[in-house]
């Protein structure tokens, strides 16, 4: 079975992506490789960060790998938090801190439109490939649901009546930014 390193330490993400890949491809996690260090992500675009993370792991381990970067762009906040979604409330902040800050900034705003975007950079035999996915929706005024991670409890995808955190992983994967980007990645990986 073909193996790829997934350049993330986020176990929710590994679980989501492995589920989308099924049993055709095995993901090797950084934990399994004993790689505990923080991977640099200092670019100012999602694509730049995905590339930086994938190149870092490829150069370190010399094995095919991919990395993803995701941002939540909120229309009323001029696209913030965007590429800074992970540390929106400050260095070392939690998902809860980020949601608190988002709800605070969105207080009283009537335009609740937002969009999750994911870019995946795959490095295979030194060649780089990019896959993208997006999911439009809106920001709720309070948290709903216990599932998922990150901003899931306050994000409702367009055309749905529940937040990402109220959906099953399967439901979320079908329509989510990362699910759609992974679909493109899988299409590419299974072409061979
Ligand atoms: P990353 O680049 O995938 O690590 O994502 C950056 C940040 O965006 C994360 O720390 C989360 O706060 C948020 N995020 C990424 N993906 C999701 C998702 O599927 N749902 C909710 N929040 C997400």
Describe the structure.
By secondary structure, the chain is an alpha/beta fold. The chain has one domain (about 1-190): Maf protein (Alpha-Beta Complex), CATH 3.90.950.10. About 30% of the residues lie in helices and about 25% in strands. It has helices at about 10-20, 45-60, 95-105, 170-175, 175-190; strands at about 1-5, 25-30, 65-75, 80, 115-125, 125-140, 155. Strands 1, 2, 3, 4, 5, 6 and 7 form a seven-stranded mixed β-sheet that branches. β1 (about 1-5), α1 and β2 (about 25-30) form a beta-alpha-beta unit. The radius of gyration is 16 Å and the shape is globular. The relative contact order is 0.16.
Please write out the topology:
Layout: E1 2-6, H1 11-21, E2 25-29, H2 46-61, E3 65-74, E4 81-82, H3 95-105, E5 113-124, E6 127-139, E7 155-157, H4 169-175, H5 177-190
Parallel strand pairs: 1-2, 1-3
Antiparallel strand pairs: 3-4, 3-5, 5-6, 6-7
Inosinic acid binds at residues 10, 68-70, 72, 85-86, 95, 98, 148-152, 164, 176, 178.
């Amino acid at each position: 079975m073909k193996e790829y390193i997934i350049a993330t330490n986020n176990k929710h993400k590994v679980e989501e992506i492995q589920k989308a890949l099924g049993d055709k491809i095995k993901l090797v996690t950084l934990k399994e490789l004993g790689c505990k260090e923080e991977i640099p992500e200092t670019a100012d675009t999602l694509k730049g960060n995905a590339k930086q993370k994938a190149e870092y792991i490829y150069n370190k381990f010399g094995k095919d790998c991919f990395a993803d970067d995701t941002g939540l762009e909120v229309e009323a906040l001029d696209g913030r938090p965007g590429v800074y979604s992970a540390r929106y409330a400050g260095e070392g902040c939690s998902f809860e801190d980020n949601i608190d800050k988002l709800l605070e900034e969105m207080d009283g705003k009537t335009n609740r439109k937002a969009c999750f975007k994911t870019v995946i950079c795959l490095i295979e035999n030194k060649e780089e490939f990019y896959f993208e996915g997006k999911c439009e929706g809106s920001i709720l005024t309070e948290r709903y649901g216990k599932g998922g991670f990150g901003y899931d409890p306050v994000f409702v995808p367009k055309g749905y009546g529940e937040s990402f955190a109220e959906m099953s992983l399967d439901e979320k994967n079908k329509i989510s930014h990362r699910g759609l980007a992974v679909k493109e990645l899988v299409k590419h990986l299974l072409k061979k």
